[in-house]
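Can't paste images in this forum, so I'm doing it all in text. The chain is below; anyone willing to post the predicted structure tokens underneath?
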Amino acid sequence: MTAATPDVLVRPMAEADLAAAEALTALTYHELDVRTRRNDAPEPTRRTPARAAAWRERTGHLLRTDPEGCWVADRDGEVVGIATSLVRELLWVLASYAVRPGLQGQGIGRQLLDAALHHGRGCLRGMLNASQDLAAVRRYRLAGSDLHPQMMLWAGCPGRRSRSCGTSATGTSRTSTCSTRWTGGSGTPPTVPTTACSRGSCDWW
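Text version of the structure:
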């Protein structure tokens, strides 16, 4: 465990943190979507109860399979930041990463990301999806990531979109080139007949 700021402690996530972590990510991601929304993009919507339950289930699974990759920032017993990650074979993936609005820029995110990255020690490559938040992208670059193109695709219900690369649980999908330049490989997103706007993404190392 490490001290992120004088009153914030970065510690391993526990099962009891799931509800607070879900609420934090719902708040933080919605605030980010509102702040960075393009004029031609659908209006951001808040996470539905069904999506909240799915988030808790997925993150609970990570707690069981990759406990060393799941961390929270704790301030007087309150979860104010999280980072969850997983390792599959030699690939490290950052699954969720958020710091409460108003507390960003104080070093909490850096401590969380460092803790999650430690879970990927020994991996040959890593991957994450980055938002348009320039401070977050800067943090990824400082940690050694390279930027590659990514698209946000909308289909079906306007305003409802997926946050996961290659999934379409909410009627939309996000795809990324996910280029692995450190091994000389490359990937091409599938062709989807929907309107797309460019986003930013990162591949690690």
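Strands lie at 2-5, 8-12, 70-75, 78-88, 91-99, 125-129, 146-154, 173-176, 195-204. The chain is about 25% helix and 30% strand.
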